[in-house]
Amino acid sequence: MFTGIVQAVGRIHTIEPRGGDVRLTLGTGGLDLAGVVPGDSIAVNGVCLTAVLVDGPVLAADVSRETLSLTTLGDLRTGSGVNLEKALTLATPLGGHLVSGHVDGIGQVLERREDARSIRFGIEAPPGLARYIADKGSISVDGTSLTVGRVSGRTFDLNIIPHTLRETILDEYRPGTRVNLEVDLIARYLERLLLGDRAAVPEAQGITAEFLAEHGFSGRKTGPDA
Predict the structure, then answer these.
(1) Using 50, 70 and 90 to split pLDDT, how confident is the model at 208?
(2) Are 35 and 23 in contact (CB under 8 A)?
(3) What is the value of pTM for the model shown?
């Protein structure tokens, strides 16, 4: 588990193909690796990876074919910047929100514009994630815990302050940049719980208008003002 508070920006040193998947070797920038050993978890652009080598300020991690296909790690090149965070402990301040490091989908930056000293980004989420993204809710973008601004369909707005721009790779975003998205854990589990026994049915759909109607949520107002 992670908090979404990026601890350092690293840089990719090498990308070594290994039998269909790859091994990433990266410089960890200012990340404190004291106590980090092979087998520990590190979030790299929001993806939980297992360190297989720790050598001074350099670490290596293997990335499976599935992870390459479901995240943006396959887009990385030598020299690419990456957000880094060590796994949290029971003594870690939870400054962001609970982040698992399991990417839910890939979004795309649609817009970047200045807003006083901040930068506003418009990001489009894949269709299956839109229902989990809410105004003022939390979302992890490349491992950075952020607060959602306005939401319109699949597109949501982010207001990024100068500190976050300096301490993460977000300042490198331009229209067309692909980003790893992880939605709030609570939203995912809440939907599953609301399904009740239907969750055990393989073909069961998520929360739909029909499902709500079946359970008494008609959408009609009741009471004296109805």
Answers:
(1) low
(2) no
(3) 0.86
